[in-house]
Amino acid sequence: RREPLALINLKKKNEETGEEELASRLDHCKAKATRHIFLIRHSQYHLDGRADKDRTLTPLGREQAELTGRRLASLGLKFDQIIHSSMTRATETTEIISKHLPGVKKISTDLLREGAPIEPDPPVSHWKPEAVQYYEDGARIEAAFRNFIHRADAKQEEDSYEIFVCHANVIRYIVCRALQFPPEGWLRLSLNNGSITHLVIRPNGRVALRALGDTGFMPPDKITRT
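Request: output the structure for the sequence above.
Response:
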């Protein structure tokens, strides 16, 4: 959903109507609504699981998801959809959250699965995936950013409110890209389990960050970052 002028072939502009036709065509390409993107990190899960299907939510993780669901419901917004990572911990978090948002459709996608988006700068000693992982995961996570984080479609008349349930690395990378910060700095951000990050995308393409990793709605003894 790029700048409207970039979507028009100026070479085909009618020479007789000139600027008047251009203005009309631009109006048909301009976004009119604001998109509210709520990025939710999955709840705490069992780290000792060997396969993804074994990495289910812990009892505390289920409590966290309940708290996140209640918080989202308390906002009184008409959510349009919940798009979630296909990984077990994100799917389970989504199922619990969705109980508090009846009628909101759920969509699973592999694009939002956890991974290594880009080599962090400065590097860290405790986490060094193989270089090939950055190429494989990075391309997918960048595709997720381009696919989901953009201004509203020109046909959208009303503001929308969408929830994305995924993973810390994915959310941190998306935030950096959306705000035009160097994406290599993604690992400097820290997100709690079940936290809410709120991005706003205006019709003109401007992006604002209203909340980053908010867990103020959770009691202190329920907060984790595993």
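The chain has two domains: 1-30, 33-222.
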